[in-house]
Each structure stands twice: as structure tokens, then as C-alpha cells.
Amino acid sequence: MKAKRLFFSIWLTILFTLAVLSFVIFKQGFQVNTNLMALFPEAEQSPIESHASKRLALTQGRRIALLISHAAPEKLKILAPLIESELLESQLFDIKEQLSEQSQLADLYRNYHHQLFSDTTRRQLEVDADTLLTSGLVAFYNPFVGISPQEYLNDPALTLRNFMMSRAQSDKLILENGRLWHKSDDANWLFLPLMLKADPYNFRVQEKLLTTINNVKLRHPELTINYTGTAFYAAYGADSARSEISTIGVGSILGILLLMVWVFRSLTPLILAGVAISVGIVAAALLTHIVFGSIHIFTLVFGACLIGVSIDYAFHYFSHQSQANKDNRGLDTVSKIFPGISLGLVSSATAYAALSLAPFPGLRQVALFSATGLCSAYLTVILAFPTFMSSRRKPANKVPWANKALIEFWQQLNMSKRGIIAAVVMLTCIPALILQKNDDNIRNLQSLDPTLQSMEQQFKQLLGGANSPRFLLSTSDDAESLLQMDEEVVELIQQSSNDSKVIGLSRFVPSARQQELDYNLYLRQVVPKTYTALVTAGFPEETAHKQVNRLKGASFNALTLTEWLDSPASAPWRFLWIDDAANKKNAAITLIQSTLSTHKLQQILPHDVRVIDPAEQYSKLFGRYRQQISWLLLLAYVVIFALLNFRYSWRRAVAVISVPAGGCLLTLGALSLASVPLNLFHALALILVTGISIDYSIFFAETQKNPETTLLSIALASTTTMLSFGLLGLSATPAVSAVGITVSLGIIFAYLLSPLAFQHDTDQKGGYS
After folding, report:
1. Containing domain of residue 564, as a range?
2. Is the dihedral of CA 636, 642, 646, 650 positive or negative?
3. In terms of Cα–Cα distance, which of 440, 441, 435 is closest to 673?
4. 435-454, pLDDT tens digit by residue?
5. Does a structural domain hold residue 84?
């Protein structure tokens, strides 16, 4: 009784500690991360490439865009200020900054409008300046364009206006009264580019963003609103994960409930199982949050699956307690199952340790979460169960798949016959494994919302182009060389592919060399015809003469990159410039949309310009880690086998380890026969199969009599595990689904193989009888 009280006191102390930690952490804020890329290691890049990738991801991740239309275009123009005001009320973004960007740019460029040309303007001036001046005059007389007399006086060729419009996010947008519009025969669309103030992967930000958009829809049901941006995709992923957590959690709990009621015919095991699961998950979540500072939604999805795994030790206790003698007081059952579940815990922890060796932050979280959850559930069984369930209960009901015929099938086979069966399994799997295909393309692991994809397609159709993860990174010693290099890059790409779109620093700040060339072109082609253009437009002759003389007397003064960076107008695009002062290097990001392959792009570009393709880099990284994790799994088997040899003879150890190994091999063979290409997550799932199914063989190896009791506990444990991971297999996320299907298959095969480890011989070091 003293031992039981001591154990229970220790368990209560653990519960009290968990309660205090829960209070502290939830008071400070329990942080849940929904950024998928936070799961993965950084791509293998140089420091400047890594800095550029993070800078781009941070800026582009906070960008969102709205396309709004109304059946009556004039009505939309009236509603536009109201819509902007409603969006501004959310305090998610500063719309005023976005709307004033064009005016800020105009203020910045106004003193340089005779040297900033679009490509089209430059070509027209070189060939026929009269046509450009005529177009300017027509636009000046058009009341809907909104050209002021002062603007026309300073620039009758409208070179600055054309330059600014060519720098817009799409050449299919026009600027009217400070707003960007897309006009077509079918409808007029208001384009609102916005920048979130906060992290797009924050739960609260996502919920507030969606609520804000929905509120605008409710207030103006006549509007058609399309939207796109990282925050919306992240919100969809987080919502899917929450749904999957609920489905897996509820499904697992219902399955456990039905099994417990049917098999043990008592509420006590059901309540105790709930306690073990709850303690395991709470302890795992708290420790993971303490170690990592937050917990990823992906980890919580796997945490829901822990419900079906952490109950293994409880089932083992219940099954043996139901067969105990009348004078059993709980501790006898603990002493009977202690070697088996302890060795099982160590072996499972070893398998999860293999997960933690992979350089994946997300996998380290899963490994810590799983190991902590199992340890906590184990301690609950050892320390608390004898107090709550000490007397013998009614004999347990059988379940159809826990039939002793499975034990008898393996027991009637001698070593030779078992060896033959093992050889047949190996020979059957080897061809399938040889023919097995791999698919490490990260793009195939994404689950995208069809509605969001449809909206993004609408953006592409109306505005052209699409977001591309690729970008170019140029490096040079000084800003002028960098700008000239960027201009060269744009020209090379456009020469190689007409449909390519490139956005670099030179789009906003041409090199001083190019500005001077354009300034001289303006002096040659436009200034001599300015007087006539101004008089024709109705300006007094004296005013026209003064303007011409002012232009002739002016001197060239280049717009510098520093001046642009210091201007508020550069805020949306400032991320394109990287000042690597530590290495005395400057770098620039160039965004690109092109059908040219990464290899082809790298061939045509200067050696100081690198093509950065994060998706391709991660795909290669995933392939390499898939191979490394496969070797880690083999290493885990070696370590587990060595541990087993301390407890069993080498022959018994081979039998024990053949259960998880056979389960993994048969799973790989099944996936190959089903033509399922393997990826990193299949390899990770095999580690989970090993960590879970090693318990089954150890439980049988520790069984000296009544193997039917052990089979019942393993049948119940494998059922709940398959239920959890089977539901995981229904996930809309391919990576999560791959884990669920692989673990489910592995557990089924391991369960069928588990009696291999049972022998009537009770001498643990004596080998088989």
C-alpha cells in the first residue's frame, strides 16, 4: 500500500506541475504556427541567398490583392471610397499608404520626367516623336484622363505618365483619380493592392482578414469580390488542419469508447484511458511549446493521432488486469507488464529519436511531442492505474480479429518454415522495391483551395501573369553597376522569351547611364517640338517660349537609388534592394515570370546573376533527406536490435525486430504495387510504424503464458492506431495523407506478424526452445 500511495503522490505532483505550466503558458499566450515552410529546414543557400529568400517571403507573404466589380461601373466608383474605409477600419493594413503610392511616385519623379522613359516611349521617340506628341495632345483634351495644364506644360509628350503606368503591377491597369482600374467590355474592376501589417500566418490575423472581407460582402451583396494572397492560403490550410484535428480526435475517441465499452464492459477503463490520453497530450503540448516557443498546427494534427497510440500501455494493463487473480491489487499487474511496456517505450523513443535527428524543425516538434506524450501516458499507467483500478474486473470480451488462430498459425511453424516465409516475403518485396518510384517534388505536397485557385485564375486572366516562386539575385560592388546589370538581365530575358515579365530595381530607378541617354534623346526629339505642341494645346506663346528655354538651359541630374530608397514611394518595392555591408557587397532581387526553365535562364544570364528557385531547391532537399532518413531508420533498427540483445537471445531479438521490419517491407511492397511514388513523408511514416509496432512484438516476447490476453491488448492498440492514422489518410493534404496511409498499412502488417515474437520458452537469454 505504501508503494501505491507513493506512486500516486508522484503522479499527482506531475499533474500539479502540468496545471501550473498550463496556467503560465496560456496566460502568456499559446502560440500556434500555421506557416508550412516553418516545418522545413532552410534550403542550402549562401548567406546572401538565404537573406534574399527570407526578405522576399516576408514581403510577398504580406501582400494581398482585391479585384472588385459591380454591374454598374459608375456605382462602383461611388462605392470605392466607402469600401476602402471599411477595409481601413479593420486596422489590418494602411490603405492610405497604398492609395497614395502613385502620388508619392509622381512627387519623386516630377523633377526627372525628361529622363524616365518606358520601353515603348523610348522606341517611339527614336522613330517618330510627332506621333507621341499627338497622343499626348489627345489625352490632354480627354476629360476622363485627368491631365492637368501644369502636367502637360512640363511634359507634353507625357513621358512621365507613360513611365509610371509601365511600372504598374500590370499593363492592363489604368490610373484614374488615384485608383487602379481594369476595364473591359464585360465589366470594370477596381484593383486594390494591400499590405498586411501583421504576420499572415497568425491565426487571429487570418480570422480578422476573412471576417473583414465577408463583412464587405454582406454590406454590399451586389459586389463581386475576388482576392488572392498568402494569408488566404494559410487560412485555408489552418482551417483544414483544425477540421482534421477535430475529425481525427472525435473519430479516435468514439472508436476507443466503443471498444472499451464492448471489451471491458465498464466505465472505469474508459475514464482511465481518457485520463492517460489527456495527460499525454497536455504534457506533450506544453513541453513542445516551452522548447520551441510555439507549436505548429502540423504537430497538433499528429498529436490527435497520439490518442490512438498513447493508449497502448493502458490496453495492456486493462487486458492483464481482467485476467488477474482475486487478490491482485494492481501493482501485481504493473510488475507483470513493466518489463514489456518499459522496453517498448525505450524502443519507441529510439525510433522517434531518429525523427529528431533530421534537420526539420517540424519533425523535431513531432518527435518531442510523440515521445513526451508516450512517456506521460506510460507514467500514468504505472503510477495512477493501480490506485484507480486495483481489483479484478469482469473478464474481457473478445474482438473478432484477436483470434487465437493467429497465434496458433505462427506457433505451429518451426524456425525453418518461418525462415521460408520470411524469404518469400523478401523475394516478393524486393522486385517491387527495385521498381519503386520516388517523387520529391514539393509542389505535389501542397493542398490548395479550389475556390482560391479559381480567384487566382481570374486575376491571371484579367491582369496577366501569375506569382512565381523563382527570382533572380544579382550582386555587385556598387549600385550603378547593379542597376546596369539589372537592365541587361531584363533585355536578355525578353529577347529569349517574349512572354516573360521581369520586375527589378531598374524598373523604378534606371541606371544613371540609361537616364542620361534618355535625357539626351528627349533634348533631341521632344524639346525642338515643344513650342508647337504647347501653342497647339492653347498655351500662350510667351509661356511656351519660357518652357522651351527652361528645358534647353537645364542640366542633367540623375535620380539615384538612394533617393528612391529614402522616398515613401519605394516602400512596396524596397525589398528588392539588399545592402550587404558586412561583406561590402550589394545585391538586388529581380522578380520573374517566365516559361523558360531554370537551367535555360541560368545559361543566358551573366555569371553574377543567379536563378533562385525555392521549390526546386526544396525538392532536391527533400530527396536528399528522404535518403538520409531511410539510413537513419536502418540505424534505428541496429540500435534497437542491440538493446534487445541485453534482454533476449539474439534469435529472440531477431524475431522481435522482424515484426516492425516486416511491416515496413510489406508496406513498401504494397505502395509499389499500387504505383504510389515515395516521398519524404512515406519515409517518416516508416519510422512511426517502427516506433509503434515494436511494442507489439515486445509485448509478445514478454508474454510467458496466456498469449490471448496479449493478443487482445495488441488488437485493441492496433485498432485505435489504425483508426487515428486511417482518418489521417483521408486528409486533403498529400503529405499528411501519405503518413496516414503508410502507418495504417504498416500497423496492419505488423499486427499480423506480431505473434512471431511469442515463444513458450521463458528463459529470456536462452533462445528458442
Report:
1. 470-510+559-612
2. positive
3. 435
4. 888 998 888 877 778 888 88
5. no
